[in-house]
Amino acid sequence: MFRLYQNLKTLRSVCAILATILCKPVSAAVVINFDDRPGLTGVASVQGQPVPPAYVVHDEYLPLGVRFDSAGGGVALVRALNAVSPTNVALATEPGPVMSFNEPVKATFYLSNGAPAVVDMVALTLTSTSGNSRFKAFDRNGAMLGSVMAGAGSTLQLAYSNQIHSVELEQGSFSFDDFTFSGLAAAFPGATLDIHPSGSNVVLNWTQGTLQEADTPDGTYTNVTGAISPYYVTPSAGRKFYRLQIQ
């Protein structure tokens, strides 16, 4: 007896399917200029400047698909005369939180339901007082896809179709504006496992992932050694349940 079984986790998707599952991407172009939130005023943007928590942004933009991280818990929003699109810019923080020109800023992409996401393109613009900064893109497994480096007033852009799960801005002292991304979609796309009879056997075909089997639907699944698609099984008195592990 063969059945469909599906189990999804936060950073790992495990699917077992008898028919096609379509994880439809949510395509959108998003520009975050940070001006929809209050920016810190009346202070100098210098290393170690305290930042009240009300001006630190972490997961406030998750409804749009992105979370910002820095060592102080998020990025600081500051009103600045040289904002690319007035009035706020964003910069790194250190524990305190305080402003930082040493720590990197990381942005990670998620769907509205909290599932990991990928995008096609990410860009941001450095302010006119920023130093040379490196902008790096990473895939869903944490492997670096590539990087670009530029200085004051530059727009840094990285494009890797359906691959970018996170980006990191590091090195030179910087503040940035107009954080832009497009092509938000599920990081773990749909996979298909097709099971059908073939003479006295049963044949399994799948599009991606590792075939696993267990004796019960909620049992312990193990990899089927040497299994490649198509995979032929001779039915027996015992039952087997199959699923795909997507990493």
Q: Could you give the distance between the termini?
A: 26 Å
Q: What share of residues are in beta strands? A: 35-45%
Query: What is the rounded Rg?
Result: 23 Å
The helix/strand class is mainly beta
| Sheet of most strands | 5 strands, antiparallel
Low-confidence stretches: 1-26
Query: What's the mean pLDDT score?
Result: 85
The count of strands amounts to 23
Shape: elongated
Helix-strand topology string: EEEEEEEEEEEEEEEEEEEEEEE
Would you tell me which CATH topology of the largest domain applies?
Jelly Rolls
Main sheet strand line-up: 1-2-23-20-21
How many helical elements?
0
**CATH architecture heading of the largest domain:** Sandwich
The proportion of residues forming helix, as a percent range, comes to: under 10%
Oligomer: single chain
Tell me the number of structural domains. Answer: 2
Identify the CATH class of the largest domain. Answer: Mainly Beta
